[in-house]
Recover the amino acids of this structure.
């Protein structure tokens, strides 16, 4: 399991009961429901949303932050800075946006911002404490983006919780995610409907560094 | 009937291993951007894969929407795992020393396995299984 690393600083803070703010990064491929999940978490604890959701790919092209979210779960308190990342991708073709009725100019601009967003999300890997790796449970989880993301988190010793999202859909197969990545904790949720979200809070409280 | 040719380059991991990390990524992307599908008997380390994605994003334009990557790493266990970690540690020290002495050479050995990297404008789908992958192209 990739949950480890309580470094000396974390241990010292934990010893004296001092709470560290956890930078919780939400990562994953495009259109897996990252912003829907960020909105769900933020709305549950602050009443406010983090960002706009859209069926058009790459709606989130800049890192969206919601700071100082206080989570309480079974007597455990945790303060998180939520970081909703642009979707990771190995390809971005401006032509895919044309079918949503965008002009060529707007589509090109969106593609440019999306490529910058991927670079920004990758750079942020050096500045997160814990990661929610969001996967669409209706899609094949064995993609190169997922494998690369998890490999990098493991190499950097960043605790990761896989979120099998969209379990409200009939085609959802969360077990395929468990089978593909048996070494990681997997929490099945529907961020849209709020289903099982309390299990995610439990996992965040359990696995986050410095909590 | 119009035919389109696709070029495959089969490159040994030894050839790629000789190159510093940034040169290796350039080597791969220069070929792929030209329309070549590159196959090698090695697997990039996760840190290098993410650098490859980052560099790909910098090069995306109208004619080059990006890449598709598929890789299979040979499973390692026991002593092999220990050896891999020892090689990683040795390379980290070498790279640290190289950095301190002002050399830009950053060496990382590829892992044993198989990798295919190709232009996304030809490769439409990669279907991956734990022990195999299939690639669907469209030209």
């Amino acid at each position: 399991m990739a949950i480890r690393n309580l470094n000396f600083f974390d241990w010292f803070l934990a010893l004296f009961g001092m709470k560290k703010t956890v930078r919780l990064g939400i990562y994953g491929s495009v259109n897996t429901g990252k912003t829907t999940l960020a909105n769900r978490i933020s709305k549950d604890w602050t009443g406010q949303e983090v960002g706009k959701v859209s069926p058009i790919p790459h709606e989130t092209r800049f890192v969206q932050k919601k700071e100082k979210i206080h989570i309480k779960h079974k007597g455990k308190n945790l303060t998180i800075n939520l970081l909703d990342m642009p979707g990771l991708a190995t390809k971005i073709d401006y032509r895919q946006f044309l079918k949503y009725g965008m002009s060529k100019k707007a589509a090109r601009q969106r593609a440019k911002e999306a490529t910058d967003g991927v670079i920004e999300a990758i750079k942020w890997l050096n500045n997160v404490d814990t990661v929610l790796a969001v996967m669409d449970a209706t899609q094949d989880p064995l993609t190169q983006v997922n494998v690369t993301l998890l490999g990098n988190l493991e190499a950097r010793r960043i605790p990761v919780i896989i979120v099998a999202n969209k379990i409200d859909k009939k085609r959802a197969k969360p077990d395929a995610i468990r089978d593909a990545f048996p070494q990681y904790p997997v929490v099945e949720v529907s961020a849209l409907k709020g289903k099982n979200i309390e299990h995610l809070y439990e996992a965040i409280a359990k696995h986050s560094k410095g909590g | 009937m119009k035919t389109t040719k696709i070029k495959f380059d089969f490159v040994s991991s030894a050839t790629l291993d000789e190159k510093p990390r940034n040169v290796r990524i350039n080597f791969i992307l220069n070929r792929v951007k030209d329309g070549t599908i590159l196959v090698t008997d090695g697997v990039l380390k996760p840190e290098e894969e993410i650098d490859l994605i980052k560099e790909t994003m910098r090069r995306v334009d109208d004619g080059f929407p990006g890449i598709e990557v598929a890789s299979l790493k040979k499973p390692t266990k026991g002593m092999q795992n220990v050896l891999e970690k020892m090689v990683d540690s040795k390379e980290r020290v070498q790279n640290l020393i190289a950095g301190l002495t002002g050399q830009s050479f950053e060496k990382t050995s590829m892992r044993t396995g198989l990798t295919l990297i190709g232009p996304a404008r030809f490769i439409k789908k990669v279907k991956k299984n734990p022990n195999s992958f299939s690639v669907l192209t469209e030209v």
Summary: Helices of chain B lie at 13-17, 21-33, 46-59, 79-100. The beta strands of chain B are 7-11, 36-43, 67-73, 111-119, 123-129, 132-137. The radius of gyration of chain B is 16 Å. Chain B touches chain A at residues 45-47, 49-50, 53-54, 56-58, 60, 62, 65-71, 120-121, 126-130 (CB under 8 Å).
